[in-house]
Design goal:
Number of strands: 13
Radius of gyration: 20 Å
Number of helices: 7
Order of helices and strands: EEHEEEEEHEHEEHEHEHEH
Low-confidence stretches: none
Shape: elongated
Distance between the termini: 17 Å
Mean pLDDT: 90
Length: about 250
């Protein structure tokens, strides 16, 4: 989802009327994009998945007011619930995963700590990933943003996903699995949720693969090549979108 549509601005507590924009939103509209009084844009609430047309009414030295029209359900939201469990990798790899997962329709992202995870991020790291998700939603035109959990153990992440997404198809991405991902996606009925889990740079241990299987995550492979951990998300969720679009068409 991309394009040159109207400027989109994330904003919580959307309600019709003239409102003072929060400082960050005012700066973004006036100083970054240089909108002038009378210019129109769209505000959206990434938590509730609603949006509204807005008109810039007044500009102050460090403030701005906008007239918000009646809120409506966001036009672009994912068609199914998709949880992405990512074993945290080194550096800023999780940043890339959060961006890709948001743009490709994930509704929840759970950072997991596995046996071979080199990084051990602090819980407040989730706040950064949440901001990245909201910005990715703004850029791609999506009307909501996925929930981003604080980092947790792999076992806790798997159990959390299965408890929250009862009936979802659970898949563990493993380059050595016998079952191809495409076969499982082709059998996924419209509206049925999906949950994916992928390991860190060194992959999952045999014990962790056993835990995945016990908790309902079937091992599936994504082609013959071994992908980088931060690449798997775009490939797998892109395949899910392609299969879903083909079925809808």
């Amino acid at each position: 989802m991309s394009g040159a549509g109207p400027l989109r601005v994330p904003l919580g507590s959307i309600a019709a009327g003239v409102v003072a924009l929060p400082a960050d939103a005012a700066s973004y509209v006036v100083r970054v994009h240089r909108l002038r009084e009378g210019d129109r844009f769209v505000v959206f609430d990434p938590e509730l998945g609603i949006e509204a047309d807005a008109t810039l009414e007044a500009i102050g030295k460090r403030s701005a007011e906008a007239r918000i029209e009646a809120p409506r359900p966001a036009a672009l939201r994912p068609g199914r619930r998709v949880t992405w469990i990512q074993a945290v990798g080194k550096g800023d790899k999780m940043d890339a995963v959060v961006r890709d997962a948001t743009e490709l329709g994930a509704t929840r992202i759970i950072p997991a700590i596995s046996a071979r995870s080199v990084a051990r991020p602090a819980e407040d790291r989730a706040q950064r990933w949440r901001r990245i998700a909201v910005e990715a939603a703004r850029q791609c035109g999506r009307g909501d943003a996925p929930r981003v959990d604080a980092p947790m153990s792999l076992a806790a992440a798997l159990a959390e996903a299965q408890a929250a997404e009862g009936g979802a198809l659970g898949m563990c991405l493993d380059p050595y699995a016998e079952t191809p991902l495409g076969a499982r996606l082709a059998a996924l009925a419209p509206g049925v949720g999906a949950a994916f889990v992928v390991g860190p740079e060194g992959g999952f241990t045999p014990e962790e693969l056993g835990v995945c299987a016990t908790l309902g995550f079937e091992r599936v492979r994504l082609g013959a090549l071994t992908l980088r951990t931060e690449t798997v998300c775009a490939a797998a969720l892109g395949a899910l979108i392609a299969v879903s679009d083909a079925r809808a068409g």
